Amino acid sequence: MFRIQKLFRERYQRILTVRPGITDLASVRFRDEEKDLARSPDPLRAYAEEILPAKLDLAEEYLERRSLLLDLSILLRTVQATLRVPSLRAQAHAPGKPNRETC
What we know:
Helix content is 67%, strand content 0%. By secondary structure, the chain is mostly helical. It has a domain at 2-66.
């Protein structure tokens, strides 16, 4: 795994300048990461080429947008993901339910 991390050294250095919180965007987005990797014919490659870069993108997004409001949003999304509560956005776009685009 350290070999993979070396590929992203510069990105990690920037991300690690911020003290970590109890959750983050990647924790919500990749809630079922182990299931995704289990479905892959080459889990290590899938992690290195798809999941890790996406996680780093989310961490960098947080660095650009960090605020109390974003932190509260992440906490709410974490609770929703943990309890498997559908997000309001997902409910708004559920089949058979009107949304702003169709109204």
